[in-house]
Write a structure and sequence with these properties.
single chain, about 775 residues, mainly alpha, two-stranded antiparallel sheet, flat
Length: about 775
């Protein structure tokens, strides 16, 4: 009997990865178990370690030997032996041993070479009726190219992965996978079809994916009946895919025939029955990318009456070009008078109808009207706004600024796009009146609108009296503007308030630091923040005294003091935070003996050496920032430890500039390895907050939800950009909006100790 076609295709896929039968394409130096480990396992279970793996694969494992594969059934020595067995067994030439190891491997222990080996071993079993390897590991380690190969082969009906494989692989999908998903969407298997629909909708929400292909796919969509699954176990059950047929028609100017046909099919025809969820925002963006014409008025009027939000917004944008048509004016008047419409919809309708006087009457209390006014009459509306925001009484002016913030947010997703260019004239108007503004307005502007962070604004804030705590973002902006002036201002304020102490401690106290000693007192959390200021005489002396206390009940205070002293001595804060936690767990007798020794070592200029004596495996996170040969040596040793979190260690080595680790990091980016990057700390995804990797992460924003989340957190760990300010269903993709932000503010980003990332400096 000939093998099933899908099995042949899967074997071809495995061969394309370099392995067809479990023999590695890239075999490193032999990895043998040491004799003591082998002897320990054989004495306990009667079989050698690799024999146990092979027996597990063949389902011939003796009953007692099952304990070797159960964490609760193993001693500490056997656990070490098990981890080493799996680590080395993965590279065995015996396919049963290699597969058994792959089924028990820890994902974070896999470097790139091991990932290749793991995928080659497990892929031939992908369409088994029972998945014995960990699907969670498999789906995380596939590259974008490997995901494309998986999508190219339809699983048989009895394959376990058929029920979830496409939807679960969405984390690794990008625009390049759209063609394969479109084929699956129109294929014969309803289980796969439903998954492909959801993934395509997610991709469309964030990116402007292959435009014509996706529009033609949506035009062929028959409706929601195609998402019904009659029998999950029988691909032939349920409705067959019969594409909707429609000829787009001739070119008549305005919207392209294809776009016009898709808008009518999706927003009008399908909506009469049951509208399928997804793709609405994507279609609205495609409509916005083309200029409508007179031929499109009829369709735009139909869209205006739709129950679908994006359909209405598409109609409103199109009808702005035809407001002289009596039918359009009447329809817009009815729309604006409908009490069920939102303020944003009403404002867009008034703008489309050219009723600017009515919009101006609403500016003072309606942010949507303000947005519409800025779109329709930018110069006049900006002047009116500035007169209130910068010239009226403080609370009235603050209300106008808050309305501007709401309009700014409304303009990210609705029928009107916020005109960022209005900030340029507003900057000049702000500078002309900045000396007359109160602290509340100055701080609100600085915290809310990076485009309005002028040097005059920052100087005015530093000159004012602060009666209340300023937002962290404002303090960080003042830090990168004039650190010395901010420190002096905080020191003066600290005498009468408690809140400036934390900021002053992070910046470094001027003078002897007496005000910080009083601020911290015996509070361990405050003491832990004194590190950067420990160069001040009183702060340093206080930390030394606290770090050597002998009373057992003061252990948290001793740990906080020693960690803060180490930060002052150059230990990265990420390492110091973990060291502090380890110090708090020390037995009292060890603490009494070692704390004073470590304090002396730190004072002698060796904070890194003191921390490493705790053992580098206690705190890998941050070691790459040490730039110390001993830290690098420790990381390289950990990188080769069986079962260790190798991926985290590689990233730390890359942060430190290790050439091999940097090469692996670059290849991880090139392959778009979702799991490797998503499980990493956000700051490590940019190698310790380096701006150089921002372009990669900006590109990932336009892929899919999970990749977007990781990219957003990576970017937010580097700079004060807020990805969530731009919604998924916006008039621009999040990627386009974030790239525009980066182009506008990238030249003004400066590193801030207070924020722990780059902030937009006054400019």
């Amino acid at each position: 009997m000939s093998p099933h076609p899908t099995v042949l295709a899967l074997l071809a896929f495995a061969a394309s990865l370099g392995v067809a039968t479990g023999v590695p394409a890239q075999q490193p130096a032999p990895r043998d178990l040491d004799p003591a480990t082998a002897a320990l396992v054989r004495a306990e279970f009667g079989l050698g370690p690799f024999e146990l793996l092979a027996a597990w694969t063949r389902r011939e494992l003796p009953e007692r030997a099952r304990l070797f594969f159960e964490p609760r059934g193993r001693s500490a020595e056997l656990t070490v032996a098990f981890v080493a067995t799996v680590d080395r067994g993965l590279w065995s030439e015996d396919p049963d041993v290699a597969f058994g190891a792959a089924c028990h491997v820890s994902e974070r222990s896999l470097d790139l070479a091991a990932i290749d080996r793991y995928v080659a071993i497990t892929t031939p079993h992908l369409f088994d009726a029972e998945l014995r390897f960990d699907w969670q590991v498999f789906k995380h380690v596939l590259s974008s190219a490997q995901v494309a190969q998986v999508l190219a082969t339809a699983p048989p009906a009895d394959a376990e992965v058929r029920y979830f494989g496409v939807i679960d692989l969405h984390r690794s999908m990008r625009g390049e996978h759209v063609p394969a998903l479109c084929r699956i969407l129109q294929g014969p298997d309803p289980v796969l079809r439903r998954q492909a629909f959801d993934v395509l909708a997610s991709l469309a929400a964030l990116g402007d994916q292959p435009r014509e292909l996706l529009m033609r796919t949506l035009l062929a969509w028959p409706g929601d009946a195609m998402l019904e699954v009659v029998d999950y176990d029988d691909p032939a059950a349920g409705p067959a895919f019969v594409p909707h047929t429609c000829e787009p028609g001739p070119e008549r100017g305005g919207w392209s025939p294809l776009l016009r046909a898709v808008l009518r099919h999706w927003f009008v025809d399908l909506a009469r029955d049951r509208h399928p969820e997804g793709f609405d925002a994507w279609l609205a963006r495609q409509a916005q990318a083309e200029q409508p014409g007179p031929w499109d008025v009829e369709l735009a009027l139909e869209l205006l009456d739709s129950d679908l939000q994006h359909a209405r917004w598409t109609g409103l944008r199109a009808l702005r070009e035809a407001s002289d048509d009596p039918r359009v004016r009447a329809a817009l008047a009815r729309f604006a008078a409908d009490p069920a419409r939102s303020e944003l919809d009403v404002a867009a309708a008034l703008l489309a109808a050219g009723r600017l006087d009515e919009l101006r009457s609403r500016l003072a209390h309606d942010s949507s009207a303000l947005l519409a006014g800025l779109v329709g009459d930018r110069a006049r509306t900006t002047e009116s706004l500035a007169a209130v925001a910068f010239g009226a009484a403080p609370q009235t002016g603050l209300g106008a600024l808050r309305a501007l913030e709401d309009a700014w947010l409304d303009g990210t997703m609705g029928p009107l796009t916020f005109p960022e260019a209005m900030f340029e004239p507003l900057r000049a108007m702000l500078d002309a009146r900045v000396q007359d503004l109160d602290v509340d307005r100055l701080a609100f502007v600085a915290a809310t609108f990076p485009a309005l962070r002028t040097r005059a604004l920052a100087d005015a804030l530093l000159a004012r009296s602060w009666d209340a705590e300023l937002p962290d973002s404002v303090l960080a902006m003042l830090e990168v503007h004039d650190r010395d002036a901010l420190c002096a201002r905080l020191a003066a304020t600290a005498a009468g308030a408690e809140w400036p102490g934390a900021a002053l401690a992070r910046l470094g106290a001027p003078g002897d630091g007496g005000e910080l000693v009083r601020w911290a007192g015996d509070d361990p959390e405050r003491v832990a923040q004194l590190g950067p200021s420990a160069g001040a005489r009183e702060v340093g002396a206080r930390l030394r005294d606290l770090s050597t206390l002998s009373a057992a009940d003061r252990r948290p205070l001793r740990a906080a003091a020693l960690a803060a002293l180490a930060v002052a001595g150059g230990l990265p804060e990420r390492v110091a935070a973990q060291w502090r936690a380890a110090l708090e767990r020390l037995p009292d007798e060890v603490a009494r003996e070692r704390l004073a020794v470590w304090a002396a070592q730190i004072e002698a200029g060796d904070a890194v050496g003191a921390a490493l004596q705790q053992g580098p495996d206690a705190f890998v996170d941050g070691l790459g920032d040490c730039r110390d040969p001993r830290a690098l040596a420790a990381l390289r040793a950990l990188r080769n430890r069986p079962g260790w979190h190798v991926q985290d260690t590689v990233l730390e080595l890359a942060v430190a500039g290790d050439p091999d680790a940097l090469a692996e990091f670059r290849e991880v980016l090139d392959r778009h390895l979702y799991g490797y990057l998503d499980d990493a700390d956000p700051s490590r995804r940019s190698l310790g907050g380096q701006l150089a990797w921002a372009d990669y992460w900006l590109g990932e924003l336009g892929t899919i939800c999970c990749r977007r989340n990781g990219a957003g957190s990576a970017l937010e760990s580097v700079a004060e950009i807020d990805i969530d300010r731009w919604p998924e269903g916006g008039v621009r993709t999040q990627e386009a909006a974030a790239r525009a932000w980066w182009q506008r503010f990238g030249p003004h980003l400066r590193p801030s100790r207070l924020a722990g990332r780059h902030v937009v400096a006054p400019h």
